[in-house]
Amino acid sequence: MTEAPHRIPAVQSPNAIRRAMFSRVRKGWDTYEVREYLDTLADQIEMADGERGRLRAEVNRLQAEAQRLRNDAADQGERTDEPDAHAVALFSRAQQVADRLIEEAVHQARDLMTTARKQQRDILEQAQHSAETAVRTAEQTSDQLSDTGYDAPVPEIEYVRTFAKVAQVQLRSVLDALTEQVERLGTLPDLDRSQGAGIPEPRPAARRPHLDQLLESTSEDASPSPTWQVGPGRDR
What we know:
Layout: H1 14-18, H2 31-76, H3 85-147, H4 155-183, H5 211-221
């Protein structure tokens, strides 16, 4: 009887990734290695979330400082057409800090995606090797039974095929959840420039690459995941 693979939500917290459970089957993965892999991914997501939180706090602080300056200027009636040097310097510093933190988050996201894809390929290759070994053993057993005139079907081959499909779907679900968490790093707070009426805008910085474009380039550079081909008649 074929067991349908359980579906994992697209968005998961680090704790949910650590508690992820997999079906236990014969000749499956090493439970300790899978658990260690999930713990590593969860730790990396927590680090990225912490960096994003620090960035948001810094932007909020700078926005509050800018609002305070605007209120002080309004109370003192010192509105002029000349640029406010302090306000320009404040916004320039805020933009530099935001650019630096976003660039660091982009690099962390790219490294995280590259590491996750490499670990996924390694685990899939190991699982495929184990599955192929089990299939060869089952085929040899089937041949021996055929030589004895026993025509009953051998369930090990179908069992291993089903295991390979279920395992691949589950691993890809975990990777999709990780990808969703990394892509959420692109939702970064922007300075509310609409609140800056009466304060001149600083000179815009050079255009920075979008996080989604960098993640997409990482996805294109990564080697494709191995295709599972087990059972009789597979290509070598």
